[in-house]
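Action item from last week, closing it out:
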Amino acid sequence: MPRALFITFEGLDGSGKTTQIRRLAGWLKNRGNQVLGAPEPVLGSSKALDSESLDSDPVLTRQPGGTPTGDRIRALVLDARSTGLAPMTEMALMFADRAQAIAEVIQPALDAGKIVLCDRFTDSTEAYQGGGRQLGAEPVLELHRLLCGNLQPDLTLLLLPSLESSLARARARNQRVEAQSGQNENRFELEQDAFYGRVWDQYREIAARESARVVLIEGELTIDEVHEKITAAVAARLHAAAPNR
């Protein structure tokens, strides 16, 4: 059976997650792994398997979204026109999306021994709803246990450049996307800085609590510097998962 590996990316919008998940997908592809199910095109070209490559095709997905049901939930919770959502409603929608993604995409891929790269997972809910909406970590973790079978990533890559630069990039990107496509996913970016301060603090608390799982990459690093840290962390997990070590 090939070796499964569940890798999640976390951080504020504008932290560079999309760029880095693409680059990691390309890096894996260059090691001989074809990336399937990507919501956007990925980089890299296919090569012959080397001695450290996995024998399965990684799956790239995101939350909210990644399934037909999840995409409908995403459209609701991220659209700036979705006003008046109660914090508990928002959290329930996030977990509905996640439970569907686990059942439809993530767990089947892991059962088949594939690498799964997921843009956001329950750490996002703990940071945004638990921290930002001030619901606390406890109900988030309990819902994760009940609705998600307590599925945990093997590795979480938490990108935390400065709060100010993340928000500026996220707001500029969403305005550009809306101008080009008419799609408005700016609902969270409309929140005040105090909300994001709580999200930021909760992410750091998660990193401290889950230090064996979470690799914290912080500061104003270049794209290449972040990529190097990510590939080093992933290579270490691949090596640790290798049979007959």
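Closing note: Residues 87-111 form the longest helix (25 residues).
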